[in-house]
Amino acid sequence: MMRRRTNLLASCTALALALGATACGGGPVSAGGGDKSLDGQTITVAGVWSGSEQKNFQKVLDAFTEKTGAKTQFVSTGDNVSTVIGSKIEGGKAPDVVMVPQVGVLQQFAKQGWLAPLSKTAGAAVDANYASVWKNYGSVDGTLYGLYFKAAHKSTVWYSPDALDQAGVEPPTTYDALLKAGHTVSDSGLAAFSVAGQDGWTLTDWFENIYLSQAGPEKYDALATHRIKWTDPTVVEALTTLGKLFKDKQLMAGGQKGALNTDFPGSVEKVFGPKPEAGMVYEGDFVAGVAKDQFGRKIGEDANFFPFPAVDGGKAPVVSGGDAAVVLKDGKNQKAAMRFLEYLTTPEASAVWAGAGGFLSPNKKLDLASYGDDVTRETAKSLVAAGDSVRFDMSDQAPAAFGGTKGAGEWKILQDFLRDPSDPKGTAAELESAAAKAYKG
What we know:
The chain has 21 helices and 13 strands. The chain is of the alpha/beta class.
């Protein structure tokens, strides 16, 4: 799945680390002055990140080295974390720490006996610094294994202020108003939405926001764990609501065919690129990184967001994703690895990446001033303020065969629904069939 971006000068971060002061427009970053108690030791950290995300995470690793003396080595797994880590464990080359991007994978690792429970120190910090929902998502059968270090706010609709101004519309607060505003935008010459239908995961995010707001958190939790079936009337209702967008060719850039041929970066380009084709694109906070890094947009000026609007009188949803740090039992340096997780629980560690950009932290003790721009601060504030009403990305909680496989399961079925949204009940039956098979497996 796509994840995030942005950069500050490395020297600025280094200055903050060295001085333990407020720097780069951020809060306290006091990684200097450590006890060097892990001198001579090395930990290996595996994760999905590459490019600018990997470079920014490296700054966190470097800050840990500065504080403790431990050397670090980052290994990129690609998106298929489960398979890669399983192979490394079997080959006797298990990393010490893995940054796991899916709840379902964390649960899988724990049930296979691969994970060490978090230390009492880390657990106490999670209790003090995080909403309990993050502890719940990091726990399996009451034992805390994962620390959510990096989060995504996946209930943000990004828009071109020029496009909305030209159409004379304000950011809407209800789903019906969103579609109405979309028609006004399309009447002014641009399509309303750019939809990344080529990437099935974006369609699961559309569904999840609608479902959370329309059906409510209890139903959301039940569906996420398959305690209710995908043929439940609430699922059919949410698909019907989503279908209002999918079947309206006036609202989507290129219509259904165009959406199915547009990947996530392309969907951002159609709004914020040199030749705009649409006024709005729905996806997580990481849209800002693409708009800024690839298309030179100034976040807050010529690229902005509004919260995903409430559906049918429900509450506005806050769907999140995130990367949880876990310690593998088969790693060669479990003690130093656990020290690293204890470090990641601190606002100090989060401030390093927050200052570099392309990052949100669920750590409520992180000073919002640590973020580099007002829009990111507002997004982070919204995520933290949501507290225990945050719900983790549903497809990331499911077995990968259903919720996280290209060309299969939920991704494929929702792409088919985008192609032909005329039968929500039939689509719900297909989803249930695929889900039942995956959960049974």
